[in-house]
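quick one, 423 residues, struct below
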Amino acid sequence: MSNFAFVLDTTKRPLAPVHPAKARLLLKEGKVAVFKLYPFTIILKEVSNATCPNLELKIDPGSKTTGIAIVQGNKVIFGAELTHRGQAIKASLESRRSLRRSRRNRHTRYRKAKFLNRTRFQGWLAPSLQHRVETISTWVKRLLKLAPISSISQELVRFDLQQMENPEISGTEYQQGTLLGYEVREYLLNKWERKCAYCGRENVPLQVEHIHPKAKGGSNRISNLCLACSKCNQKKGTQSIEKFLAKKPEVLNRILAQAKRPLKDAAAVNSTRWALLNKLKETGLPIATGSGGLTKFNRARLNLPKTHWIDAACVAKIESLKLLTNKPLLIKATGHGTRQMCRNDKLGFPDRYVPRFKSVKGFKTGDIVKAIVVNGKKVGRYMGRVAVRTTGSFNISATKLVQGISFKCCQIVQRKDGYNYGF
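---
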């Protein structure tokens, strides 16, 4: 089942989202018009005095993909997965840095170095991390314009390390050990990539294993824990890891190094969590928070599959959950292109010219268009993203690439906004 359709009244005030079947019926009767394709939004043609229910927007921030869900009571009516481009930004900055340093070494070797004269404001984040905050904030603002959202829930911490180190800090659930166990297991599953640390087996039941045996004084600290399959765990027993892996020095070195290494993705999420929370507070809506262990606890208790958008629906405290959609909107950040006037090849030499003006006949590359061709070799209807050419003969990426479509046959469906969409 698809996501519910967003509804706007004649003044663009958000109303209660409706079931896809009802949206199709309203379109067929001519009572509404399509306002936006992604996410699908309709707008009423007549004034409506309908009351708006209270909806909750839930967010599960991730390093690579962020889950988004809109919940009405205990019903999930909208789900989306937002894929970030943090790694692409990092790669672009590194490429620019290498080109700049190469140019400096060739032409201005004696110029005074400037790498120590920059200052950073308080709360500064690396561009790849700031991108995650800004992208999530952008989509929160968009959804606030499309749905009557009255509150927001955010997964504030991926792993509650403080509770893991000090279970007595507060809370009866932690003291009883149920939620603490979920925090530890979720952390270890991510850190050891859901594999046995010793043999690398996947898709088998994994047990929490003490690297330095507890029988020989090993502690329960998170840095002394890994995951092992039942066979390896029993085979190791109370042996020291050095003795157990004496014939596999490369595996020993990898495990010892990985045990001390922090999680890269978790570090990225933890670096941006407070900046994102402060951004969400700017909306003026009440904000609820929860940890990653609590999210997993809720999902396991309700026997739900693990996906980013379902994780978002399980953020914070919930009693029950009913999925009215199983087809989330897949959103991928692509950016708005580059301002470079000339592209470089892999060696840094000028490769090709880029036109200064990006618009051709009112179209830009990336716009979603509908083309109806009534004569010629390419008769048919096409819908997809357009790649413009100064000649006015465009390419459209539909189910397959269609070349040589005249701009006269094209009609804008949705302007490019820096994102690709899919289901």
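The two ends are 11 Å apart (CA to CA).
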